[in-house]
Amino acid sequence: MDVFRDLYQQLIIDHNKNPRNFCKLENASHSADGYNPLCGDEITVSFIEKDSIIENIAFMGSGCAISKASASIMTSTLKGMKVEDAKALFEKFHTLATTGESTNDMGKLSVLAGVHKYPARVKCATLAWHTFQGALNNSQEIIKTE
Ligand code: ZN
Q1: 78-117: b or e for each residue (b if 16 or more CB lie within 10 Å)?
Q2: Which among 21, 115, 124, 130 could disulfide-bond with 67, CB atoms 3.0 to 4.6 Å apart, if both were Cys?
Q3: CB–CB of 54/142 below 8 Å?
Q4: How many angstroms does the Cα of residue 52 sit away from the middle of ligand 1?
Q5: Distance, CA 111 to ligand 1 centroid (Å)?
Q6: Is pTM beyond 0.85 here?
Q7: pLDDT tens digits, residue range 16-74?
């Protein structure tokens, strides 16, 4: 069984090879670290909130292709978005990753729908999002998927 056949669509390969917003963010107002012990993915998500808008967002870390691609797509999607809308999108993405159900306003995020068939991979795909949630609260604790 090739777990990756469903998952490694062109967009995921591209985001893994050339991750967007993969850098240290200076002057971040929010930041958190995340860890997925099941796979070993580590990530730091930082963003700058200004007037309730995510003005800039970036991530760093090391992990599998899915965790990296998901973080890359997430940061591309959230940049410039209202914080309230980003919170709502987290819920939608969580549903997408765990059930495969997508709404037509999810854009590139929907390429990750295939992960719901592989429970271990769901954590790789959602790590960046859980860490983003932690960053919203400026969590000092490492966000874990377990
Ligand atoms: Zn992973």
Answers
A1: bbeeeeeebeebbeebbbbbeeeebeeebeebbbbbbbbe
A2: 124
A3: no
A4: 31
A5: 16
A6: yes
A7: 999 999 999 999 999 999 999 999 999 999 999 999 999 999 999 999 999 999 999 99
Q: Which fold has domain 2-138?
A: Sufe protein. Chain: A (3.90.1010)
User: Confidence class of residue 1 from pLDDT cuts 50, 70 and 90?
Assistant: very low
Q: State both tokens at 84.
A: 């309230």
Range 12-18 contact pairs with CB under 8 angstroms and sequence separation of 24 or more: 12/65, 12/66, 12/69, 12/111, 12/112, 13/65, 13/69, 15/68, 15/69, 15/72, 15/73, 16/65, 16/68, 16/69, 16/72
